[in-house]
Amino acid sequence: MRLRGKKNAPELLATLPTLVITEPEQHKGKWSQVFGDDRPIHVELGMGKGQFITEMSVKYPEVNFIGIDMYDELIARASEKAMAVSERTESSEQHPSNLRLVRANIEFIENIFAENELSRIYLNFSDPWPKKKHARRRLTHPRFLEKYALVMNDWGEIHQKTDSETLFEYSLNSYAWMEYMMKDISLNLHRDGIHEEHIMTEYEQKFFGRGMNIHRVEVLVGEAALKQHREAKKLAVKKQPMV
Fold first, then answer.
1. CB neighbours of residue 242 within 10 Å
2. Which of these is catalytic: 72, 127, 184, 192?
3. Are 123 and 158 in contact (CB under 8 A)?
4. C-alpha dihedral over 148, 152, 158, 159, to 10 degrees?
5. How many of the other CB atoms lie within 10 Å of CB of 17?
6. N or C: more exposed end of the chain, with fewer CB within 10 A?
7. 195 near 165, Cβ under 8 Å?
8. pLDDT digits (tens, 9 = 90+) for 185-199
9. Closest to 125 (Cα-Cα) out of 232, 59, 49
10. DSSP 3-state of 122
């Protein structure tokens, strides 16, 4: 998706050097230095207008967030949201200090992040690329999943949301093919009403308003994430009452 009507986007981005990063390859392996701390880094691939990643940065100040998209127009929209959030929360900062917006092509994510640098990747309403001949372009194609596994650490997880039933089915099969553990699979995330703990994207709000189902899954990639899940599962089984 490319927005129109943001002719001054490049000029706006140039005024926000601490928020917007247009040459992310320079920071490969050094993102902790960019944020000035060692907090976990979560990345949204294809952030659109930035509502999700911005609100996440406010809700979870103990995590560093990066939103990535290809177009200046979308980065500009997201930067406006980031600055508006600071005003709303009466922050002295121009934008949330734990948020960065990156202009980049996701195709080359391995050139932006080093091995073990990320803890979580969000795939929210990615382009479904419905034609079979375009399958390799889907962000859950195994070739992309291999790249994600490379840049994520032992706590690595992928959280995906989509309105596309066909993309969701394809994605579940891709995760299974990669032998990843999946949990909290939902075919209708908001069946009983909006989940307050889930930050909604602009697309999600629109689709939910139309009565469309939102599909969601959490995928455990890192060994530490898998171990934690197994331990939590064992504890849950022990707490189940005897029949």
1. 3
2. 127
3. yes
4. -120
5. 9
6. C
7. no
8. 999 999 888 877 789
9. 49
10. strand
